[in-house]
Amino acid sequence: MITFKNVVKRFGALALTYDDYTFQRGRTYLVLGASGCGKTTLLNLIAGVTAADGGQIVIDGQDITAQSPSVRDRLRTRRIGYIYQDFKLIENMTAEDNIRVLEMCGVRSDGLSELAKRLEIEDKLKRKVRTLSGGEKQRVAIARALVKSPDILLADEPTGSLHFEIGEEVIKKLLECAKGKLLIAVSHDTRLAAYFDAVIDLTAQGGHKNV
Ligand SMILES: Nc1ncnc2c1ncn2[C@@H]1O[C@H](COP(=O)(O)OP(=O)(O)O)[C@@H](O)[C@H]1O
Ligand SMILES: [Mg+2]
After folding, report:
1. Quick one: DSSP state of residue 106?
2. Of 96, 97, 123, 178, which one has the greatest count of Cβ atoms within 10 A?
3. Which of 35, 40, 186, 203 maximizes ligand 1 atoms within 8 Å of its Cβ, making it the mutation to test the pocket?
4. Number of domains composing the chain
5. Stretch 191-198: mean pLDDT, rounded?
6. How many Å lie between the centroid of ligand 1 and the Cα of residue 9?
7. pLDDT band at 211 (very low <50, low <70, confident <90, very high)
8. What angle in degrees, to the nearest 10, is found between the helix axes of 134-146 and 164-177?
């Protein structure tokens, strides 16, 4: 379970304030909102990529805002699968080597072939990422996030670079793979709302303040 309480993130004069949220294990959440409203920052805060300037973010009883960056990095590496908006794949490496990349940090890649089958990228595993289409890269990024069996899955604009029909397919696959986990996806696309257990509209909440 993840809870937000009075969370604030500052970028210079800009203060992003978040409402109090509870994200439950086994449920899927879609966070909606216009560009610039703080969706990516919300995921970065949960992933510990960025630190909050106020409030608490508690993940399974542990207040990560009280932890050092190295503790947050460890938590992310072990327990959080993060599908970045720009994928952050290494283009000159094969899909499979990208998916296995955390083995360097001692993280196991269990069930890779089953996952590749489910995401329909089995025949792409030996290909260099740079030769893959946007939808294929998206699915490789999903596989990389899932292969370490995280209990928390974060997805930033998972359909952002795709045509809507392909994006819908990717969402269906993502949800299938996320069963039993906590999934938080963020998007500006309201058409995705029907697929998720709960929808949070960031635009209507919290706020931006120039202080
Ligand atoms: N590293 C940063 N430095 C300065 N401003 C930032 C940084 N990251 C985000 N912001 C600002 O915070 C706001 C929210 O950004 P972001 O979370 O990326 O929004 P979204 O993902 O909803 O488009 C924007 O106004 C953005 O310009
Ligand atoms: Mg964003």
Report:
1. T
2. 178
3. 40
4. 1
5. 94
6. 10
7. very low
8. 10
Q: Whose CA is nearest to atom 2 of ligand 1?
A: 11
In this prediction, residue 51 has a pLDDT band, given cuts at 50, 70 and 90, of very high
**Residue 150: which of 120, 115, 196 has the closest Cα?**
115
Measured between alpha carbons, how far is 151 from 173 in angstroms, rounded to an integer?
Answer: 17
Which residue has tokens 């994928």? 87
Look up residue 128 and give its amino acid.
Answer: K
Mean pLDDT in residue range 130-157: 94
Sign of CA dihedral 128, 129, 135, 138: positive
**Atom number of ligand 1 nearest to Cα 37:** 22
Give which of 47, 70, 56, 65 is closest to 22, Cα–Cα: 56
96 compared with 207, residue with greater pLDDT: 96
Cβ(41) – ligand 1 distance below 6 Å: yes
Q: Is the pTM higher than 0.85?
A: yes
pLDDT-derived band of residue 206, with 50, 70 and 90 as boundaries? low
Residue 72 has pLDDT above 60, yes or no: yes
Average pLDDT, the chain: 91
- In the chain the first and final C-alpha atoms are separated, in Å, by 32
Q: Which domain holds residue 26?
A: 2-210
DSSP 21: -
The residues, any chain, with a CB within 8 Å of residue 38's CB and separated by 6 or more, are 9, 16, 18, 202, 206, 208
Q: What pLDDT, on a 0 to 100 scale, did the predictor assign at position 83?
A: 95
